Amino acid sequence: MIVREVRRRERDRYIELIAAQASDEDRSLHLLDSSVREIRGAFGWVPFALLRLFAILHRSPVHLLVAEEGGKLVGTTVAIFRPPGTYVAAVGVDPGYRRRGIATQLLARAELLSRERRIPFLVLDVYSSNSTARRLYAREGWTEGPHVRWWRLAGPVSSASPDPPGPSWAVPRIAPFPELAGIRSHLADSLPFDFPPSCLHPSEVVAAGPRWIREDLAVGPGGTPVAATRIIQNRGNPIRFLFPAAREAPPPGVLARLVREAHGFGRSGNPGESLVLVLSSQSFWEKELESLGAVLVTESETWWKRVARPGNRGDQGPPAGSTSGEAHPR
Fold this sequence. Notes:
Number of domains: 2
Largest sheet: 12 strands, mixed
Oligomer: single chain
Number of helices: 10
CATH class of the largest domain: Alpha Beta
Structural class: alpha+beta
């Protein structure tokens, strides 16, 4: 069995493996549909050629990895480099090839690539219901971090919802550089490190076309940034994903105002359109969600692992004979 980069002609089998690993949570949140569209985009001539060129230069922002056995693709994973961490996604193995150590070797390759890039952490997340994958990660030395909860808001927040108290409240839209860089820094600073704040997929790094992104900043009196949100919607996906963040507990009403802004973004009138709020369980806003009519859909757990430094025993890779269980993308 070998672990290598996927080839362009293997796109359909790659997508087949991703789809076979999708969980009920992925389907209910339309994450599988979004992933398939973005993977197809990443396999286009230009994006894929860029990926190959970057890989040759050892500067690729993402590696699409596969496990091959007997000439057949039997496993997948994706390593996305976003210093200070490497986000590992789509870890999974064909049902007929599980418990052979394939997932362990895929994770080991992602760790090796991260170490070569001098990135000290790997991050992944898995749904709480996926007990088999959680056992695999625990056995391989991954440590559980904060839980991430996915809340669905079926309708817009009432305009009667109170605005934050005090004068001069504003929620400006932040779009062009350099303002965009500033808000991304705000989002990153205000979330725990081991919470993937944007659930990036490969083609967002290489070909952002299939995805709409908007970012808003809540500004308090005196122009001080208080909170920020990132809104993501894939074309053809009826769900918009909202990632709120705050450095400290904001006044009541800030979340409602940000949600009202998000509801007007990218609406197409498709049936089933809704907003999904993705928040760490440590968020300041959890107690406000029920008052906004939000319903808890699912919960995932974020896991992190520090990459062994060169010269440590951890550089030798996984122990011989390691076996892996079933692992879904989340």
